[in-house]
């Protein structure tokens, strides 16, 4: 299987929600940390925090077509059990393309789809809109 970007395996917990923001020009991957029972998290983001993962496609990311490249990342990560649920946020054409490219293991983890283009927003506005979407969940 082709490796897509870098996904650090050691700091990802199985209950984390992975969030993909995509459009025709790129895709970015974020994570909302799952709560850990009976553990303290020193030096790490708190449960519920939204943070970018170090892989993205487009704009200098994967170098190919961003939607299939992101689907490859998700398929590989799902096969390895690196996340517990998945949310896709993209305009309708990109959303359909992402869903078509997901393998059954990744599709089974899909819990929410939003037809919005948050990727086109400036960083601060994107973070605020994403946080609002997750509160409405």
Determine the fraction of residues in helical runs and give it as a percent range: 25-40%
Parts with pLDDT < 50 across at least 5 consecutive residues: 1-12, 39-43
CA-atom Rg in angstroms: 14 Å
How is the biggest beta sheet arranged?
5 strands, mixed
Widest sheet, order of strands: 3-2-1-4-5
Number of helices: 4
Distance between the termini: 33 Å
Beta-strand segment tally: 5
Shape: globular
Beta-strand content estimate: 15-25%
Derived structural class: alpha/beta
Q: What oligomeric state do these chains adopt? A: single chain
Give the SSE order as H and E letters: EEEHEHHEH
Mean pLDDT: 81
Describe this structure in words.
This protein is α/β, with parallel strands linked by helices. The chain has 4 helices and 5 strands. The chain has a 5-stranded mixed beta sheet. A hairpin with a 2-residue loop joins strand 1 (17-23) and strand 2. The longest helix has 15 residues, at 66-80. The N and C termini lie far apart (33 Å).
Which key features would you list for this structure?
4 helices; 137 residues; 5-stranded mixed beta sheet
């Amino acid at each position: 299987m082709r490796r897509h970007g870098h996904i650090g395996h050691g700091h990802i917990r199985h209950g984390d929600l992975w969030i993909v923001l995509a459009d025709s020009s790129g895709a970015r991957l974020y994570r909302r940390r799952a709560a850990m029972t009976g553990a303290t998290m020193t030096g790490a983001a708190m449960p519920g925090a939204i943070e970018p993962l170090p892989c993205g496609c487009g704009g200098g990311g994967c170098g190919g077509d961003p939607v299939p490249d992101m689907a490859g990342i998700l398929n590989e990560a799902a096969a390895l059990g690196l996340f517990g649920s998945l949310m896709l946020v993209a305009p309708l054409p990109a959303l359909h393309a992402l869903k078509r490219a997901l393998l059954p293991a990744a599709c089974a983890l899909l819990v929410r789809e939003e037809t919005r283009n948050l990727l086109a927003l400036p960083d601060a506005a994107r973070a605020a809109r994403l946080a609002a979407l997750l509160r409405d969940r």
